[in-house]
């Protein structure tokens, strides 16, 4: 599945939102894999788990060269203009800081990392490319690491 633009989208426009409930790691680990795949890390050991039915944001797939980024914990925003029919994507490195949802990437693009991990946000090239598009949780981690803090 995926989400596709049904009309032109302008850079900066909100395209989807995430919703659900907050779970700690123990709750997360008890969920079925399908629910874990619709989860976003929002803080150390805290996760936003999608509701029983998928939210629009749940259909925005990963890409190693995305056209969308995050504004806060819940909004998916166009990073550039998006044409009709183009798939809406964001790089999960913008939101995931743990190993709860690692997978082989199938985006097939020249920039493809091959495997998406919860450590990808640490890659300097991604920190540079996605500055301003990381979740608040990862933006804090990046800032703290740059100051030598954990």
- Low-pLDDT residue spans: none
Task: From the alpha carbons, calculate the radius of gyration and give it in angstroms.
Answer: 15 Å
Can you give the helix content as a percent range?
Answer: 10-25%
Architecture in CATH?
Beta Complex
Going by helix content, strand content and strand pairing, the class is alpha+beta
CATH topology: Beta-clip-like
Order of helices and strands: EEEHHEEEEEEEEHH
Principal-axis shape equals globular
Major β-sheet annotation: 3 strands, mixed
Please count the helical segments: 4
How would you name the CATH homologous superfamily?
SET domain
Q: What is the top-level CATH class?
A: Mainly Beta
- Tell me the domain tally: 1
Q: Could you give the order of strands across the largest sheet? A: 1-9-6
Arithmetic mean of pLDDT:
91
State the end-to-end CA separation.
37 Å
Number of strands: 11
Instruction: Report the portion of residues in β strands.
Output: 15-25%
Keywords: S-adenosyl-L-methionine, Transferase
GO molecular function: transferase activity
Can you tell me about this structure?
This protein is an alpha+beta fold. It has one domain (3-145): Beta-clip-like (Beta Complex). The chain has 4 helices and 11 strands. The radius of gyration is 15 Å and the shape is globular. The N and C termini lie far apart (37 Å). Residues 1-93 form the SET domain. Keywords: S-adenosyl-L-methionine, Transferase. GO terms for molecular function: transferase activity. InterPro entries: Flavunoidine_N-MTase, Post-SET_dom, SET_dom, SET_dom_sf.
